[in-house]
Design a protein that fits this description.
The complex is a heterodimer of chains A (362) and B (451). With 362 residues, chain A is α/β, with parallel strands linked by helices. Chain A has one domain: Thiamin diphosphate (ThDP)-binding fold, Pyr/PP domains (Rossmann fold), CATH 3.40.50.970. Chain A is built from 13 helices and eight strands. Chain A has a six-stranded parallel sheet, sandwiched between helices. In chain A, helix 8 links the parallel strand 3 and strand 4. The radius of gyration of chain A is 20 Å and the shape is globular. In chain A, 58% of the residues are buried. Chain B folds into three domains: 79 residues, Beta Barrel (OB fold (Dihydrolipoamide Acetyltransferase, E2P)), CATH 2.40.50.100; 184 residues, Rossmann fold; 127 residues, Rossmann fold, CATH 3.40.50. In chain B, the strands form five sheets. Chain B has a seven-stranded mixed sheet with strand order 11-10-12-13-15-14-20, sandwiched between helices. In chain B, strands 17-19-18-21-22 form a five-stranded mixed sheet, sandwiched between helices. A four-stranded antiparallel sheet of chain B has the order 1-8-6-3, with no helix packed on it. In chain B, strand 21, helix 11 and strand 22 form a beta-alpha-beta unit. The chains are: A alpha/beta (362), B alpha/beta (451). Chains A and B meet through helix 3, helix 11 and helix 13 of A and strand 5, helix 4 and helix 12 of B. The structure holds thiamine diphosphate and magnesium ion. Magnesium ion binds next to strand 5 of chain A. Magnesium ion (MG) binds next to strand 5 of chain A.
């Protein structure tokens, strides 16, 4: 169950961020809590995790293709490689918890249960998209699924996540605000303003740092001073943990501990997910800041989907079962792509709607 | 099954590219993620990855070929049939959404005459190169000048504007920052108080919103508050305004925001010559200067004076085209559209005078008023929101100073008064186009078609 705040994190985590970033290929041992707040999932549940991660992977590959064909415009940031994080975290979130993230948001939306059709149609800028085509890749929302976006300004979502947590506490609804942001975002001042208020008022907020080792072309070691990013809340008394973000089971265990801590009214928690993005920062990325070998090694040795597939095989799950899931996922994505291309462009009159709410004073 | 590989669009503004290198040959087997080619775009050199498993059966474009349009078939693959319930998307090859109002393409621009006083040598440069050269020349000239911002050094600039500067000037003077706009903007202000000459690059001006307190409350006001002791010689520069399809948080013109504030100078060049000459003046200026660039213009070429001592003074507008029926003012990307509109208007027998404002604060009202007194009609153009925009200020000043000369109320051409939408058709409707300017001119000249 939930543990009291501890001196966090211990040894490997306490190494400098600099060293860690250089050895990004190295497996960062997660620190699954001794008394995991959550049981290991059974085979069916694991197949569910596999399916969700694969859905994000295939969805993103398709989005990349559609971008190359000119069907998607502007900025398009793919989540490929990082799937275990959002799938692991959302698999233990409770109904009513809220979620917010940056522009690298397609995976988060799918993991929150938003439809592949609606997300893809937003990517193509069509009227059946989640924002009627007016938001695009970086700006989608679903009040229904408690997904609060989709934000384009680095770290701006963090204090907004703080506000979501404030509302959970205010309304006493037992919810937790899951606030995702990057290793680049961690250096913005508003993150520390948020740490302070979250700790000061014991807000139910999990700060999830998706440390994919780079913010655009800048490695963590060139942007972040000091110790592990998980340690950044120390001065505020916020416990932090470094987690192997390439393993969905480790993510789940860490997430369960953090959420239990929040739900027990003890305040915020920081999870630093060690992960990696396989693709460029956005579609236009010259990728000269890292070697192809580094990317390949990560893909071949640490891939979260391959890892889980192998685990499932070793536990006796038949290959046919996996193949069926693969085919189903492919069909969902293929249908979403067709849907997104068939959906009409927004009505020109939509240009002038949704600027202010008219006549609904209460 | 055969899968075609097309020239991919690798950035929001890319329309064509060069196939720099093939990494595969016919007969090679590839899997998703394998690099098959290297492509040079308007911004960078990038690797193209295979998206499917298969064997390369054709390479349709020679290595080194330039100007290959996005969507051109560059190679073919014999794909592995993986009993997929889907036909490959390439096979469908649907054209990009057929919007009538496609987002504006950077149209070829006429090369304007450079500053009147100059009759020396010129050479063609893109705006991107002109900006880089201006910074390099000033850094050579004055070792207090340094460049700081996100991705300016090792990455060579998010939009490749600072290409080569790290090599020439080293890491002491070309400095990559963490993503901390408020922090490095404050740093720049402090360094300027301490008599260095910072150039602070914002990846785009949208992100300067994180730092606007330091720009206004610290950079702009301290000279006054210190009774003239504490000057702040700093340049804040970066792309401003809409790019293409990047949505509301990444597409906004901030010209009127900064122009509103005493204590700042604000410039927004259109041509490469002005970009270079004004940036050099901005770096030498003892005051904080907001230097608004435009991403869509970075790749456009213009003739630029080669003399490194050639400057464009801040605060002087440039009459790009003389005319007698209407005065059109514009700045930054809208200048190109105003020039196109003027050409079309000439065919209709309307003679438009086009003034490139270049500088928004100080504003060269003298030139504008003189022109309005001649043409008796006034149209202002900007990409930003109309409300309290640059056009509002211009109209007010024109009315104050030249009311008796006007034959029609001034008309403001501006972006739609809505956050920028993402959808291609809505974005085109939100941005002022050449036709919008023509309509506005019809309005002030009471021509058919005017409202
Ligand atoms: C305030 C602000 N500054 C700069 C940018 C441009 N930008 C977009 S993403 C990004 C890198 C962010 O890196 P990180 O937080 O590690 O997230 P990742 O992209 O790796 O998911 C930058 C600099 C921005 N969107 N907002
Ligand atoms: Mg990152």
């Amino acid at each position: 169950m939930a543990k009291p705040p501890k001196k966090s994190p211990k040894k490997p985590a306490a190494k400098s961020a600099t060293k860690k970033a250089k050895k990004s290929i190295k497996r960062v041992p997660g620190r699954p809590p001794k008394n995991a707040a959550i049981a290991r999932p059974d085979t069916d549940a694991m197949l569910g995790l596999y399916e969700e991660m694969l859905l994000i992977r295939r969805f993103e590959e398709k989005a990349g293709q559609l971008y190359g064909m000119g069907m998607i415009g502007g900025f398009c940031h793919l989540y490929i490689g990082q799937e275990a994080i959002v799938v692991g975290m959302q698999s233990i979130a409770k109904e009513g918890d809220s979620v917010i993230t940056s522009y690298r948001d397609h995976g988060h939306m799918l993991a929150c249960g938003m439809s592949a059709d609606g997300v893809m149609a937003e990517l193509t800028g069509r009227r059946d998209g989640y924002s009627k085509g007016k938001g695009g890749s970086m700006h989608m929302f679903s009040r229904d699924k408690n997904f609060y976006g989709g934000h384009g300004i680095v770290a701006a979502q963090v204090p907004i996540g703080l506000g979501l947590a404030f509302a959970h506490q205010y309304k006493e609804d037992g919810g937790v605000a899951l606030t995702y942001f990057g290793d680049g975002a961690i250096n913005q001042g508003q993150v520390y303003e948020s740490f302070n208020m979250a700790a000061l008022w014991n807000l139910p907020l999990v700060f999830i740092i998706e440390n994919n080792q780079y913010g655009m072309g800048t490695s963590v070691s060139r942007a972040a001073a000091g110790r592990a990013l998980a340690d950044r809340g120390k001065a505020y008394g916020i416990p932090g943990m470094q987690v192997d973000g390439m393993n969905v089971l480790t993510v789940r265990e860490a997430g369960a501990e953090a959420m239990a801590y929040c739900r027990a009214g003890k305040g915020p928690y920081i999870l630093e997910m060690q992960t990696y993005r396989y693709r460029g920062h956005s579609m236009s990325d010259p990728a000269k800041y890292r070697t192809r070998e580094e990317v390949d090694a990560m893909r071949k040795q640490r891939d979260p989907i391959d890892t889980l597939r192998e685990l499932l095989a070793s536990e006796g799950v038949e290959n046919d079962k996996i193949k069926t899931i693969d085919a189903e996922v492919k069909a969902v994505v293929s249908k979403a792509a067709d849907f997104a291309q068939a959906s009409p462009e927004p009505d020109p009159a939509e240009l002038w709607t949704d600027i202010l709410i008219e006549g609904r004073a209460s | 099954m055969s899968i075609t590989i097309t020239m991919p669009a690798l950035s929001p503004t890319m329309t064509e590219g060069k196939l720099a290198k093939w990494f595969v040959k016919i007969g090679d087997a590839v899997s998703p993620g394998d690099v098959i080619a290297e492509i040079e775009t308007d911004k960078a050199t990038m690797e193209v990855e295979a998206l499917d498993d298969g064997i390369i059966t054709a390479l349709n474009v020679a290595e080194g070929a330039e100007g290959i349009a996005v969507g051109t078939v560059i190679a073919a693959l014999d794909g592995e049939d993986d009993d997929a319930p889907e036909s490959p998307p390439e096979a469908k090859a649907p054209p990009p959404p057929a919007t009538k109002e496609a987002p504006p393409q950077p149209a070829p621009q006429p090369t304007p005459s450079v500053a009147v006083e100059y009759d020396g040598e010129v050479a063609p440069l893109t705006i991107r190169e002109a900006l880089r050269d201006a910074m390099a020349e000033e850094m050579r000239r004055d070792d207090r000048v340094f460049l700081m911002g996100e991705e300016v050094a090792e990455y060579q600039g998010a939009y490749k504007v600072s290409q080569g500067l790290l090599d020439e000037f080293g890491a002491k003077r070309v400095i990559d920052t963490p993503i901390t706009e408020m922090g490095f903007t404050g740093l720049g202000v402090g360094a300027a108080f301490a008599e260095l000459r910072p150039i602070i690059e914002f990846m785009t001006f949208n992100f300067a919103m994180q730092a606007i307190d330091q720009i206004i409350n610290s950079a702009a006001k301290t000279l006054y508050m210190s009774g003239g002791q504490m000057g702040c010689p700093i340049v804040f520069r970066g792309p401003n305004g809409a790019a293409a399809r990047v949505g509301a948080q990444h597409s906004q013109c901030y010209a009127s925001w900064y122009a509103h504030c005493p204590g700042l100078k604000v410039v927004a060049p259109w041509s490469a010559a002005d970009a270079k000459g004004l940036l050099k003046s901005a770096i030498r200026d003892p005051n904080p200067v907001i230097f608004l660039e435009n991403e869509v213009l970075y790749g456009q070429s213009f003739d630029v004076p080669t003399d490194p001592d050639w400057l464009v003074p801040i605060g002087k507008a440039n009459i790009l085209r003389t005319g007698s029926d209407v005065t059109i003012t514009a700045f930054s990307i809208m200048v190109g559209k105003a020039m196109q509109a003027a050409e079309q208007l000439a065919e209709q027998g309307i003679s438009a005078e086009v003034i490139d404002l270049r500088s928004l604060r100080p504003l060269d009202m003298e030139t504008i008023i003189a022109s309005v007194q001649k043409t008796n009609r006034f149209v202002s153009c900007e990409e930003g929101f109309p409300f309290a925009g640059i056009g509002a200020e211009l109209s007010a000043q024109v009315l104050e100073a030249a009311f008796d000369w006007l034959d029609a109320p001034p008309v403001r051409v501006a972006g739609a008064d809505v956050p920028m939408p993402y959808a291609a058709n809505l974005e085109a409707l939100a941005l002022p186009q050449v036709e919008t300017i023509i309509t506005a001119v019809h309005e002030v000249t009471y021509q058919k078609g005017g409202e």
